[in-house]
Specification:
Helix content is 25%, strand content 29%. It is α+β, with helices and mostly antiparallel strands. The chain starts with a helix and ends with a helix.
Amino acid sequence: MIDLMPLARRLDAQIHSKVPDTADDVMTVPGDIYNDADRFERARTALFRRYPVFAGWSSELDGPNAFRTIEIDGVGIILTRDKAGQLRAFRNACRHRGMPITTESSGCASRFVCPFHGWTFGSDGSLIGVNQGGYFPGVTKETHGLLPIATAEKHGMIFVQVEGAETIDIDAHLSGLSEDLAQMGWDKWQVARRTEHTIDVNWKLLADGFCEGYHFTFLHSNTLGAMVIPYVHVVDHYGRHTRELFANQGMATYFAEGTPEKPPVLGPDIALVYLICPNLIIMGVDETFWYAVALWPGDNVGQTRVEYSVLLAPSVTEDQHHHCLEHARFFWEQVIQAEDFTNAMTMWRTLKGGRLFPLHFGKNEAPLQHWHKQYMEMADAVG
């Protein structure tokens, strides 16, 4: 775990001054940033195909020949570990006619047999055999393996880039955030629960709800609002990404008698959030479990696929395991779904109608401003 004491001191100063970390000015954006279909298509292609994006957790591919299938912007991808345990990523498409080589979501297999005509591929992507290969002169095992996709693995996280690169410089992508993430030990944590949902609302509108605590006092008055000290947060940007720290009620008296002997604790004292551009939110609410929400643009401007995961530390006992999953269920059902997502869908009914005035992101919504600036710059960079 990272050293929370310096961050706690910054929070304590904000509690007394009542001034959070802020942006330089108000950010005004066009009213159609959520509902414009052309903007949506351009941003989706740029952000999710031409830059590295989170693709899963290392523990989800546990051991040689483990595999998992995912889809990013309509592109079917198979993540595998070869016989030596090396991570690889390929288009989930047979080189014969494009049939997915597997429709399973995950599993363990040293080879994949295309269900259409029986072409066979190894977990390293190599073409092993062609059914009645004599009818395909020029198709060789050396030239017709699965099409590779750039991938990288670090800090227990997997990233892929669908287009435009053969490799990913993951340290450059994380832009200094690696120092934090390296201390988390997530490469040894397990995904204890994963749920997927499709919601009829724009994906950026859902992402916005995780980028600021300004709404906690009102929208979450009976849940998070009762746990968090309002209107204070520590914000640090790392390239496209952001670390955000919130003060829970324990911080109100944490420094009351000078410097405590023990560091602040996730949950009673502090909540820690990482915003990994463009679509991953990782929330630390306890020393033994974290939540992760990945938001994927759907088939149209008003649809989002949501993946919610619960990460458990290797030290979790059987009794703690039950507590963690119960807390995760409460957070997902009572906070994210019942409050955040319901609110976003209500907003979407207004925003999707168009003919809107400009919208405003306040100085106290610095992470929100930062993410939207990244969206715009990334989309503009690739046209």
